[in-house]
Amino acid sequence: MEETSKQRKARLEAFRKRKAETITNTGEENESNENSKTLSFRNYTPLNEDVRANSIVKITKPEDIGDDTVEKTAQQIDLFNLAPRKPNWDLKRDVEKKLQKLERRTQASIAQLIRMRLQGESESTTDLADAVRATEKGAESENESD
Predict the structure, then answer these.
(1) What are the boundaries of the signal sequence (predicted)?
(2) From CA 45, how far away is CA 99, in angstroms rounded?
(3) 88 in helix, strand or coil?
(4) pLDDT tens profile 36-56
(5) Which of 7, 43, 112, 121 could bridge 131 with an S-S bond, Cβ 3.0-4.6 Å?
């Protein structure tokens, strides 16, 4: 039993040494990583000169920024888009396609009614010119009576 306890103690001691070595190695690696890192102070100006020298500072010229924004805003502004729309503009947009169909049908039916009227008049009168003259005379007589 004494022999097994000595072996166990030796293994534990070797394990502790290995663990201590890894801790010191990682500590050295952390120090080298910390030295290679550079700090970026966006909202803070460091007071320490060493830290200020190692920090990264990117400065943009305000003149360049101003020119770009003026050009972009000039392109983006459209007076048609700025004007307020009526509350039912979307309804009108949706109904417009249906109204175009109805407009074509309406025009076709008006043309058909005119043809029917001309045919009815042509049966009563022999000539289209006579029908036109008759309508002109009727319009003149209405104007004189007023």
Answers:
(1) none
(2) 66
(3) coil
(4) 666 677 777 777 777 777 776
(5) 121
Q: Is 48 helix (H, G, I), strand (E, B) or coil?
A: coil
Q: Are 35 and 51 in contact (CB under 8 A)?
A: no
- The percent helix, strand, coil of the chain (3-state, each to 5) is 80, 0, 20
- In 3D, which of 61, 62, 64, 38 has the Cα closest to residue 51? 38
Let me know the angle formed at the C-alpha of 94 by 88 and 96, rounded to the nearest 5 degrees. 100
- pLDDT, tens digit, 9 for 90 and up, residues 113-146: 999 998 887 776 556 677 777 778 877 776 666 5
Q: Which amino acid appears at position 47 of this protein?
A: L
d(CA 56, CA 42): 9
The residue type at 26: T
**Model's pTM, two decimal places?**
0.29
Question: 3-class SS at 43?
Answer: coil
